[in-house]
Amino acid sequence: MLDINIVGAGLAGSEAAWQAAERGIHVNLYEMRPGLMTPAHRTSSMAELVCSNSLGSDLVDRAPGLLKAELRMLRSLILSCADETSVPAGGALAVGREAFADAVTRRVENHPRISVHREQVTRLPEQTATVIATGPLTSASLAAELALLAGKEHLYFYDAMAPIVTMDSVDMARAFRASRYDRGEGDYINCPMDRDEYECFVDQLLAAETIPLHDFERENRQFFEACLPVEELARRGRDALAFGPLKPMGLTDPRSGTRPHAVVQLRQDNLAGTLYNLVGFQTNLKWSEQKRVFALIPALENAEFVRFGQMHRNTFLNSPSLLEPTMQCRSRPNLFFGGQITGTEGYIGSTCSGYIAGLNAARLMLGQPLLSLPAVTMMGALCHYVARAEAEHFQPMKPNFGLMPPLDNPRKRKRERHQSFSQRALETMQEFVESTSLLTFG
Questions:
Q1: In angstroms, rounded to a whole number, what is the distance separating the alpha carbons of residues 254 and 263?
Q2: Do 110 and 13 have their domain in common?
Q3: Residue 441 lies in a domain
Q4: Which of 5, 272, 341, 378 could covalently link to 67 via disulfide, CB atoms 3.0 to 4.6 Å apart?
Q5: What is the pTM of this model?
């Protein structure tokens, strides 16, 4: 029997395990939880979502939506489970957090060619083909091993989680249901603020106490832009929030018939619709300060918080100095990497590189040539970026059309360009699947 090891059962590791197992490989999947928990995880479930429950836009003319469309074409486990457990989110794909993790866990554990080992891996296996998909919260001992392999110090950035409140505690007399530009059926709860309410909120947010950082954290403090804490964003200017996560564009308050000065959006967080998270409100404020400051949002004056926001250190590799677009390690051909540790940022970006790592680890064992997806696809563009970017200034990257090769006949309007990018990508992916027999397996 052909065996590979996969370390980490998050989004990337679960996807990698599934793709390898579907191709006839026996997978030993290692997950250290629940024996050793991370600062962000709360359960032992696979593919637990520790930040937002949104997987981003599901519109095919948006980069995250295109990436999802490609993964669906390739029979992604994660996308299949996400579609099964989706909750209303307008043009985005959001999931019931626990239902999604349960679905992934159940399918992985029940696969006849996947053996799950609930134990920590502290050393890199040398003989067996291995996929490292431990994510940004890699244990200290394994991170030290990876630092030796990479030949340089790891880079760090900081991630932050948004608070979650109960639906029943939101004052709906001061909030309204709607999606921006009427996309969806009132999928978001919108908490409007006028100018004075917004100014008061910003004043208190800027004055609030944050959780102290350790010396090492202060020296290496670096926030990744996609998860910038709300208080850090507010320090960039008094109107930064109103033009960022609190922008009221595409929303009209039905009580006044006008657009509010600012809007805090709440997105459904579980299938039952009893929990909602504060969109864009990742934070490192002390918990007591979160309760005090966020109560200044009119509709959340008496909100019940079931989870406060928090910040944690994330780890990622300098992938351009280490990896090929196949997610294979240059210096150790039987070693592959997948997930956010490679710099493919976000839930679906993590799934993408996990898919490629699992696919190619299986192909290596089967004696088949490794596959690098065409750069005109979003999956290919993202993997080529992390493997070919400038190593000196490398930072994690989420899917975006800027990663893709230019169009032969670029359109003037952005939406038309994006539609052309998507059409080219999906047509190329279909041709690639057919020419490589990518989905022909037992």
A1: 13
A2: yes
A3: no
A4: 378
A5: 0.74
Clarify whether residues 278 and 394 are in a common domain: no
Query: Could you tell me if 230 and 281 are in contact, meaning their C-beta atoms sit under 8 angstroms apart?
Result: yes
Instruction: Say if residues 376 and 404 touch (Cβ distance below 8 Å).
Output: yes
pLDDT tens per residue, range 387-398:
998 787 677 788
List, in order, residues 6 or more apart from 45 with CB less than 8 Å away: 98, 101, 102, 104, 105
Q: 349-380: b or e for each residue (b if 16 or more CB lie within 10 Å)?
A: bbbbbbbbbbbbbbbbbeeeebebbbbbbbbb
| Chain segment 154-193, per-residue pLDDT in tens | 445 566 778 999 998 999 999 999 998 877 778 999 999 9
Identify the CATH number of the domain in which residue 410 sits.
Answer: 3.50.50.60
**HEC assignment per residue over 165-179:** EEHHHCCHHHCEEEC
* 354 and 307 part of one domain: no
- Strand residues in 217-367 grouped as ranges (E): 262-268, 275-278, 305-307, 310-316, 335-337
Report the C-alpha gap between 266 and 201 in whole angstroms: 17
- Residue 339 lies inside a defined structural domain of this protein: yes
Boundary (domain end) residue, out of 278, 311, 344:
311
Count CB neighbours of 393 within 10 A: 7
Q: Rounded CA gap, 101 and 425, in Å?
A: 29
Provide the residue range defining the domain that includes 141: 3-154+317-436
In a domain, 442, yes or no: no
> What is the count of structural domains for the chain?
2
> How many CB atoms within 10 Å of residue 145?
16
Runs of H (alpha helix) within 191-298: 195-207, 215-219, 230-234, 287-294
Q: How many CA atoms lie within 13 A of 62 on its CB side?
A: 12
Q: What is the mean pLDDT of residues 75-80?
A: 98
Of 311, 340, 375, the one marking the end of a domain is 311
Rounded-to-integer distance, Cα 104 and Cα 292, Å: 37
Report the run of H or E that residue 345 belongs to, with start and end.
Answer: none
310-316 vs 155-161, strand pairing mode: antiparallel
Q: Are residues 166 and 148 in the same domain?
A: no
